[in-house]
């Protein structure tokens, strides 16, 4: 099967890339997914749907379940198994966000108070566990051992990635290679699984299954790279979270890794103090942003994101041109162009 060449660049008169083609493509399917989500987050314990609903209804992009639906459209799947599986993907993602906010001590999520701030850490962790359990119920109801293996494997990899990130926290010597391994696990694994399961339910061949896995994995890395760049070049209103969270938590994201590697002795001394937790005031954050800008670290982080976005677009070039392929390609463009 020959592959088309799909360029990353677009004509200027096309305007900035958006998620609109993906949203239009998946609108009907997302209504079905949202119905499953609403149904399965219910419980006789009132706190569970209240806390879960606080995050689930909080305005997230729902990009991961949309990937499942778009990938199903790409491969021509005509059934409805992917609706429940997309809901399972969203439950896994939501559970990890709840747990992350507790681990990080986050105060904001999607522009409003994080669940752990409102409901407390114990309830937030336990509702995250509940959503993980619901996701596995949906997987087993689907009946495919291969789907179960893909999604359960992704869940384990995500957990490993979060532990790896915790282990690298406040370690200024963290390398770019190590960082890419971490985000490949904690973020990209679920993007890959969300895309790949559509090929399984669509009974695609191995090459198509791998192509969708590659698409999701590279898109996930690009998405996380941009997230990490945004922490240093966007304001809180755009981000929906506290600006400088990564800095104050001592996270060695790529902008910091690059700025530290390129810095002189004085700059490196600053980064050692900042990442170890001894310099985390607003003035220190402003100085960190200035050093990152001085060393071109945000733009180079975004450039690396564009590289992975191109790899994602290339991966789906084995499929015939279609609205689904175009929407998925534009989603990759949007992932690297966004400011929030």
Explain what you see:
The chain is globular and about 60 Å long. It has a single domain (17-334), classed as Farnesyl Diphosphate Synthase (Orthogonal Bundle), CATH 1.10.600. The protein is an all-alpha fold. It contains 16 helices and two strands. The protein has helices spanning 20-40, 47-56, 63-74, 81-104, 115-119, 121-142, 145-168, 176-201, 206-233, 236-239, 245-248, 254-262, 265-275, 282-294, 297-315, 323-337; strands at 108-109, 112-113. Helix content is 73%, strand content 1%. A two-stranded antiparallel ribbon has the order 1-2.
Which secondary structure elements does this structure contain, and how are they paired or packed?
Blueprint: H1 20-40, H2 47-56, H3 63-74, H4 81-104, E1 108-109, E2 112-113, H5 115-119, H6 121-142, H7 145-168, H8 176-201, H9 206-233, H10 236-239, H11 245-248, H12 254-262, H13 265-275, H14 282-294, H15 297-315, H16 323-337
Antiparallel strand pairs: 1-2
Cα radius of gyration in angstroms:
20 Å
Shape: globular
Q: What is the helix/strand order?
A: HHHHEEHHHHHHHHHHHH
CATH class: Mainly Alpha
* N- and C-termini, Cα separation: 37 Å
- Strands of the widest sheet, in order across it, are 1-2
Q: Are there runs of 5+ residues with pLDDT below 50, and where?
A: none
The CATH H-level homologous superfamily: Farnesyl Diphosphate Synthase
Approximate strand percentage: under 5%
What is the total tally of β strands?
Answer: 2
Number of domain units: 1
Main sheet specs? 2 strands, antiparallel
């Amino acid at each position: 099967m020959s592959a088309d060449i799909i360029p990353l660049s677009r004509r200027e008169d096309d305007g900035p890339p958006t998620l609109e083609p993906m949203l239009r493509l998946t609108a009907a399917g997302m209504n079905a997914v949202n119905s499953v989500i609403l149904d399965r987050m219910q419980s006789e314990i009132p706190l569970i749907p209240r806390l879960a609903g606080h995050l689930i209804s909080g305005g997230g992009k729902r990009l991961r379940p949309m990937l499942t639906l778009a990938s199903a459209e790409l491969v021509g799947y005509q059934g409805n198994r992917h609706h429940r599986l997309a809901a399972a993907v969203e439950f896994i993602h939501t559970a990890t966000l709840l747990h992350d906010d507790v681990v990080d001590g986050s105060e904001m999520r999607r522009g409003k108070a994080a669940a752990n701030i409102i409901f407390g850490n114990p309830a937030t962790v336990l509702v995250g566990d509940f959503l993980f359990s619901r996701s596995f119920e949906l997987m087993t109801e689907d009946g495919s051992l291969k789907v179960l293996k893909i999604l359960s494997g992704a869940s384990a990899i995500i957990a490993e990635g979060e532990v790896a990130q915790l282990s690298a926290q406040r370690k200024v010597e963290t390398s770019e290679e190590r960082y890419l391994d971490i985000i490949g696990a904690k973020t990209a694994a679920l993007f890959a699984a969300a895309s790949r399961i559509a090929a399984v339910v669509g009974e695609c061949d191995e090459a198509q299954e791998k192509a969708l896995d590659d698409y999701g994995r590279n898109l996930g890395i690009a998405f996380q790279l941009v997230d990490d760049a945004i922490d240093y070049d966007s304001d809180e209103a755009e981000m929906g979270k506290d600006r400088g969270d990564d800095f104050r938590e001592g996270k060695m994201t790529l902008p910091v890794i690059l700025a530290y590697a390129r810095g002189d002795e004085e700059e490196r001394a600053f980064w050692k103090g900042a990442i170890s937790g001894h310099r985390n005031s607003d003035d220190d954050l402003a100085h960190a942003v200035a050093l990152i800008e001085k060393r071109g670290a945000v733009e180079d982080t975004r450039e690396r994101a564009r590289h992975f976005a191109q790899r994602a677009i290339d991966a789906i070039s084995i499929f015939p041109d279609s609205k689904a392929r175009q929407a998925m390609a534009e989603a990759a463009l949007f992932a690297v162009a966004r400011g929030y």
